[in-house]
Queue: 2 jobs
Job 1
Amino acid sequence: MTGKVDHAAARAAFERALAEDAREFGNFFLSRFLGLAVTYPDDDTCVVELDVHDYMFNPQGSLHGGVIATVLDISMGHLLNRRVGTGMTLQMETKFLRPARAGRIRAEGRFLKKGRSINYLETRLTDAGGALLAVANSTWQLLGAAGPDGAPRS
Amino acid sequence: MTGKVDHAAARAAFERALAEDAREFGNFFLSRFLGLAVTYPDDDTCVVELDVHDYMFNPQGSLHGGVIATVLDISMGHLLNRRVGTGMTLQMETKFLRPARAGRIRAEGRFLKKGRSINYLETRLTDAGGALLAVANSTWQLLGAAGPDGAPRS
Amino acid sequence: MTGKVDHAAARAAFERALAEDAREFGNFFLSRFLGLAVTYPDDDTCVVELDVHDYMFNPQGSLHGGVIATVLDISMGHLLNRRVGTGMTLQMETKFLRPARAGRIRAEGRFLKKGRSINYLETRLTDAGGALLAVANSTWQLLGAAGPDGAPRS
Amino acid sequence: MTGKVDHAAARAAFERALAEDAREFGNFFLSRFLGLAVTYPDDDTCVVELDVHDYMFNPQGSLHGGVIATVLDISMGHLLNRRVGTGMTLQMETKFLRPARAGRIRAEGRFLKKGRSINYLETRLTDAGGALLAVANSTWQLLGAAGPDGAPRS
């Protein structure tokens, strides 16, 4: 199957990713390589937006499920980090409703339940026309600032 | 946070990905960028192996959950494609048991149930020492014969 | 551990369940035994309500996760049956946010995506005060038109 | 739809459930009502067996998904309680592979990962012929003996 990716777009993404050394929430190699724009429009929401490029495709020529999972994961983990504390994903369930092939897409993460140890979040991915592409929800355990019982972890 | 990635390793991965134009199972841009080796040791198994590099990290400095999801997804979707037919992931659930920071890791996908329409698969990700890093399972609908709405897809 | 259930309540539930022979959506043995009230307030919603009783408890003395799963499943499957057609659950993921020990609880099922073959639904369980107890979402394949292997089911 | 359940079987199950007051692991109202036999053949396994009866059916006349979820949940939660400590289910994902209509079925729960706070378990449900009916896995947080950081919780 021919699947020549847009070399200029892929190279621009790669050089953008390598041009900085930051590894922090909102700005790390993968987030720069995928061209993610991370914003927090209100206290309960994290929005992650990106333009779909063909270097992100699966063999069938649509956005790879793993890239979708990456974007959805970030929309939840970044919200948790911003509002409660850094956590690790215990598990994540993702439903793939429609394929994405082009345009700007947007994930919107929200809390289902905040906690001092266990936190639950959910997120939805939509295309530029508002069609629902994927949903996910996940379970997180807080690290760092406060351990599972409120005691410092590190 | 300092998170300077190994530029040489990242650039080698990127140039390897861009040097070919194939977009097929086992060989597409993302699989080349992640350095995936996909093999089928027997009729019921697909193994995906890769070396962990820091350009795959999350802000905390371990393998990003989205990269893990990508590798796990491929170990199931490639097996389905090889043994039954091309499918689309309806959903996937992933549990993250331990972080991965270095070394060669290995996902092993297997069938839970084959079907002419719906197929169920599972997979496990282990490190070089055999420790279980993540598990996932997923539901797939075959394309080709009949698409998601009963109409032929291809 | 002492866990004497309210005999009168349990017996009333059982006799109510056995007093009728219907096995249909909204009215089958388990729905009568659990005292479920199933309503469809609008085209996109199915509400299932019940009073929590101690014969539904787990060993720790709160509503058993399996009973929660039953109620959540029904709020989605009944909506699908009412608005699209009878389906079988391919999978379901449930998150348990808070235990329930008493009072009237309410599950509200909605569509994530309707389809001629695959349908996605979600649901939320709340207590009388509106606190979120559990969420679930699920993937369904329609029966009737075409079964799981493309052959008519009924 | 006619769906007259076997009154004698249902009544025997109910009276068996009500005849005892125990509410403990392996013996509580729902476990007695469903006729569950819970055993621990080795350190890493919990087996739950039951005979399928029509009082456990969904409107379509097969074992209700909620009853399946109940049995699978118990096969994991009882194992955790026996080997590590009492926990609460944070989430559970269930895949329904084949319907069950009669006979003796068997769920076999196992650990994916033990932990002082978070524990992961999986389970498989098979019929008398060994056919795989359903699989589930789940995430648990320990209560009681040891809190999430090894400190007593209660």
Job 2
Amino acid sequence: MKFGGTSVGDVDRIRNVAAHVKREVDAGHQVAVVVSAMSGETNRLVGLTRDVARLHDAREYDVVVSAGEQISVGLLAMALQDIGVAARSWLGWQMSVKTSDVHGAARIEMIEPDAMEAQFSEGRVAVIAGFQGVSSANRITTLGRGGSDTSAVAIAAALKADRCDIYTDVDGVYTTDPRMVPAAKKMDRVSYEEMLEMASLGAKVLQTRSVELAMAHNVRLQVRSSFDAPDAPDASANGEAIVGTLICDEDEIMETEIVSGIAYARNEAKVTLREVADRPGIAASIFGPLAEAAVNVDMIVQNMSADGKTTDVTFTVSQDELERALAVLKGATADLTFADLQAAPDMAKISIVGVGMRSHAGVAQKMFQVLAEKGINIHVISTSEIKVSVLIDADYVELAVRALHAAYGLDDELAG
Amino acid sequence: MKFGGTSVGDVDRIRNVAAHVKREVDAGHQVAVVVSAMSGETNRLVGLTRDVARLHDAREYDVVVSAGEQISVGLLAMALQDIGVAARSWLGWQMSVKTSDVHGAARIEMIEPDAMEAQFSEGRVAVIAGFQGVSSANRITTLGRGGSDTSAVAIAAALKADRCDIYTDVDGVYTTDPRMVPAAKKMDRVSYEEMLEMASLGAKVLQTRSVELAMAHNVRLQVRSSFDAPDAPDASANGEAIVGTLICDEDEIMETEIVSGIAYARNEAKVTLREVADRPGIAASIFGPLAEAAVNVDMIVQNMSADGKTTDVTFTVSQDELERALAVLKGATADLTFADLQAAPDMAKISIVGVGMRSHAGVAQKMFQVLAEKGINIHVISTSEIKVSVLIDADYVELAVRALHAAYGLDDELAG
């Protein structure tokens, strides 16, 4: 079980988390709980480090910031004991969660759960500080943004857990953003691959890295709401009840939709280089400098020109990186010759995602047709095995997402 | 160097501490700094543990509360780096400070400073979390109230430090309370034994335990103010300059006063048992039940009666434990027979302290004479090798302390 900062934001919420844990213990499970710092605490600590020194040693930053999770685990262990559940806290260095030495953004390398497993057999819940580990130099490390989800998945993998339940402020993963499309349905199951495509495309329920890790170690992930009544019985008394959305191997999903969900991302910008001299290494001369300037390039399309001597290159960046991208390209003109540099802000990316696409033809064609019927112009197309993304004018996002959601049969009939 | 919670209470004060450390580093010293949690932080964390559960697991309490020092050390290490002083933080488990398993009030058993010493040779300041250690079960322990002073002394002993400077909100140890006697002088040097007698008698500059530990390991302790300008040059450029008060072995004190200081404690109460049957074990039958009830008994006097069959026993307790003491004695009358139980609140204890007493006769006599001249009645007398304590009515505290301070030649001639 993993609870984020909002779920442990104050003493009452910590008690609520304890009640969730008790329900699972009462159902006969051995439970490890990973928690984040109380909401606001990490920001407070980060603020202190900024006030003390503008340039700070990442190792000392980790010492300060990891105190937030240390406080949470102690408090949750106490709250569990208070309702009669045996529990003890575990810090990154106690488990131990061995990580790389990249402080502030460390990667988990190995987890040694032996000491913790011994406690399970004594019926004790393990309350584990997320977001932290210990380096080979015996210093505290933190995993960087969203690291607690990753901690939870890595620990679930090390413990060979039956499931890793991520408690959040939403009750599951939807076929698209329910604030935009009221007919959006909560998915019972979704494959790792689909979740990865949707997470990186804007359905920000889980950190991408945690889903990748879950896929690599085949950890079954469940997203569910920490605001549900903790003592409500699960939907099915017989076998496993999925309350939220289960993210799992596609083999476990009996009936797959061709398209599982529609994702979107606003604040995209398009950059086009016209009549670039077409020679080997041209892509590197464009995207090398951009990578060095830490500009994140997403979609890339290259078309040969009619004469075969020049080419047009189009790519997308997030809108707030557009100016930086243009400055880099203008500064790199010695290596790079082109006739024109065109930029278009206020774009949006719409993606249809589904593992069923692999075995179905005409899925992309249907998307283009739906958008054409609504008079929506497609600027860039990019495809992968299980998704099709298009870049359109940001004004048409809602219209496009709703039309596609309906066209692929995702509307909830009850809600619709 | 050791800095308490007030000295690291906010970011500006942490910077001030860093400047104090830099001065010592610039003077060519290898420096270890022990710090407490930012003032208010420990109380905040203790409050959270109380809110979560009334009865809490001391092991989890230690996990939560020790986060306070963890935050301080990270911030101070950053502040030092920011002014060009190489530094790194050390937590109890990293050093490691091995303690007993008595969570919340653990005792230091062993310190392994090897890893830290290696860093000194690289010119790096060690910033050490006070108040915390690690148990044999690899759990975080805390040392209990005032534990940071004890940490500092234990670490100074393990490092074989030349000196352990305790920075506080006073600039040294005075011959008596300067708020009561304006002519009180700051002592340059005072012996461990004298300091122990004064600390336990109300001159609350240092924790008794830390002075005991310093004496046992011959750690030279200096008490000085953290509010002094950190970049002021020390008084003597040649050799060691004592800025505050040095607490050291009496061999190091060339010219000892016969009486070094006058201590006092208000809020004392006197209890007298009249005509107690005088038989072996009578003291145990009185003080055994009091100890069991956690009543702290201070002075004890027993006088044989004229007939040799009964005895009068008088002892003192702190005023807020008086009622409890009386209840215990009344409840214990089965084992204990006495004619009368008398109690007197509103007493005060005055003590003259000095290692010079050992070799000088008539020191106590002078005390009695001075008090008699002022018409002050002495209720109880208790003596040790280096101190004489008397119990008087609380109303006369100021008069007694001032008269004794002058009589033993302690008044500052400039101030006086």
